[in-house]
């Protein structure tokens, strides 16, 4: 696999780029780009990495990201097994701050939109009626051309700027410290962890894979992700557990073992630390929410 940390999404024709993504799986490469991004998942599930945040994703996931936030929607393993019944489907808009001119967002009338762009520097997880509005408009934007398309897009940004239905994704003070030259190293880390998180993850094996000592790797990883390596593992495991709880096919004990935990007490403790809820309460609230 060729790593793509710095991704090019520029349009040579339009002021902003609108893409419909229909593939067997989402782009498996951890990357960033100098564009704002408004993205919704229509089909697919897996683990989402944005900045220093990790969580399970599924259809409905809708985010607004600022420039140069590293991100990856890692599809579940089943999507890589050539199953014709599984596809991923998403719609994304890419744009730069100067897509309508150098000083467009500096005008007094654009104050709220300017604030939206500033909030986007940490990434916004959109929910509620605002999410449904954004998803509907993204799916219909391709019906418009020229000036009408630009107006529709600005209306979407305006509605998003007025809304309070969002949560920040990356932690306060998060800064992208990754370099393009580090692409391959971090890609190897992600791939190894996603392959082995259900097992005992051996720090020495992973450190050797990226040609570092154990202690050097731990320092490097924390400096790049703003969290200790084993917190990163725990978040991936709990994200996978959330997916299994959504599906509702396994008992809590089975979910724990399928997510890499050997004891139910450790699973319950880490699940509550990360989600703020017990696994049972989390499952009940999710089931209630989709009825």
TrEMBL record:
Keywords annotated in UniProt: DNA-binding, Transcription, Transcription regulation
MF terms in GO: DNA-binding transcription factor activity; sequence-specific DNA binding
InterPro entries xref list: Cupin_2, Homeodomain-like_sf, HTH_AraC, HTH_AraC-typ_CS, RmlC-like_jellyroll, RmlC_Cupin_sf
DNA-binding is among the record's keywords: yes
Domain HTH araC/xylS-type: 187-285
Domain of life of the source: Bacteria
SMART domains recorded: HTH_ARAC
Pfam families associated with the record: Cupin_2 (PF07883), HTH_18 (PF12833)
Protein's recorded name: AraC family transcriptional regulator
